[in-house]
Amino acid sequence: MTDPDIKKGLAGVVVDTTAISKVNPETNSLLYRGYPVQELAATQSFEAVAYLLWHGELPTPEQLAELERTERAQRGLDPRTVALLETIPVTAHPMDIVRTVVSQLGTFDDTLHRPGGWTDPALDLQRSVTLFAQLPAIVAAVQRRRRGLEPIPPRDDLDYSANFLWMTFGELPSDAAVDVFRISMVLYAEHSFNASTFTARVIASTTSDLYSAVVGAIGALKGPLHGGANEAVMHHFTEIGTADNVGPWLDRAFAEKRKIMGFGHRVYKNGDSRVPTMRAALDVLLDESGRDDLAALVDALEHAFVERKGIYPNLDYPSGPAYHLLGFDTEIFTPLFIAARVTGWTAHVREQAASNALIRPLSAYSGVDERHVGTAARGV
Ligand code: CMC
């Protein structure tokens, strides 16, 4: 039985207000606290964008310096996290590993035991900065461990983006490549009521704690219909191999009714506002690496898919190959998304808490009509 009022997947349903970001599919625009994301990607550090999402305004030089100081002071891996990582099979998916470690971080936080400590807004802001500072070290350590390598300590003389790449690879790529990484973090930071952010808000709405909300959000992000698409895109490229195989590969994929990852969006129907900026950033890496084969493949799949389906690429389409060219394993792409989106998630947790109503929708029952066990069935 289906009820005509049911909006499967909450499609088109407005469930609350938010002052954090505005997605406008008509104008193909995305604003963080009123600023077009393209302008932020062109001019701001990721630290400044994190500040903007949490506080509603871009930081003054003093405020930015204070955030950078706090972030740099918390960059190092806790020895208990290093010990936990050693207990997790190296074959586990990095999303599962990062989810587990973020859960562990919640157990280190003694302020949770204070009266009202779970949902104290000032403490939640500190926790947001802690997660922001810790995730690069966690993701870098997970990437290195997959290659049989020890974690690399952070460097205080580097900004967030350069330090992230340093901790992962032990060397720095060109300034242009560091900038591509920064741009990807800015573009991934926030996107209104997407599935993982909504998950975080549902958890926050029960007056649970911020770590629990982020752990739940990571679980939602893992799915290929959401953040897992950036990993899945790269698997497509590997499967296809070369640009001249795109046509036959798509024929087979359509015949098997497969979804092609990195295309389509619930909100944008005429193209994802973030794609042109990320595509330009990817082109920098494609030029720098001389990977004309990959450039041809990325173009060929995009053109063929848009021509045949009229569905456009989303942010995961250009970011997947960009992370590949930066040197990350494919399974690390979605954990990079976590490191960026934790800024948006934590801003939303605090916004939810500030004017909370328990999120508890209704369902239309579709099971069997009322019935009774009866004495015989109870074996009495
Ligand atoms: N490949 C093939 N067909 C598609 C695709 C795709 N990527 N996207 C949409 N369609 C078709 C779909 O099969 C359906 O066709 P029909 O009406 O004939 O059954 C129609 O378009 C509508 O699709 P839908 O899945 O009902 O629409 P939705 O609004 O629920 O889907 C989506 C949004 C993102 C789940 C979907 O486009 C999709 O599965 N894309 C691939 C996964 C992906 O790239 N996800 C990342 C999303 S954006 C960034 C992020 O969150 O990470």
Report on this model:
With 380 residues, the chain is mostly helical. 58% of the residues lie in helices and 3% in strands. It contains 17 helices and three strands. It has helices at 37-43, 46-55, 61-73, 79-87, 94-108, 121-146, 160-169, 175-188, 195-205, 210-221, 229-240, 246-255, 275-289, 292-309, 316-326, 333-354, 374-377, and strands at 21-24, 29-32, 35-36. A three-stranded antiparallel β-sheet has the order 1-2-3. Helix 8 (175-188) packs across helix 16 and helix 9 (195-205) packs across helix 16 (333-354). The radius of gyration is 22 Å and the shape is globular. The mean pLDDT is 96. Bound molecules: carboxymethyl coenzyme *A. The site of carboxymethyl coenzyme *A has 20 residues, from loops.
Distance between the termini: 35 Å
Strands side by side in the biggest sheet: 1-2-3
**Count of DSSP helices?**
17
Q: Specify the structural class.
A: mainly alpha
Task: Tell me which oligomeric state these chains represent.
Answer: single chain
Mean pLDDT: 96
Computed over alpha carbons, the radius of gyration is 22 Å
What ligands can be seen in this structure? carboxymethyl coenzyme *A
The largest β sheet comes out as: 3 strands, antiparallel
* Total DSSP E strands: 3
Instruction: Enumerate the spans where pLDDT stays under 50 for 5 or more consecutive residues.
Output: none
Give the DSSP E fraction (strand runs of 2 or more residues): under 5%
* Secondary-structure element string: EEEHHHHHHHHHHHHHHHHH
Query: What portion of residues is helical?
Result: 55-70%
Q: Can you tell me the overall shape?
A: globular
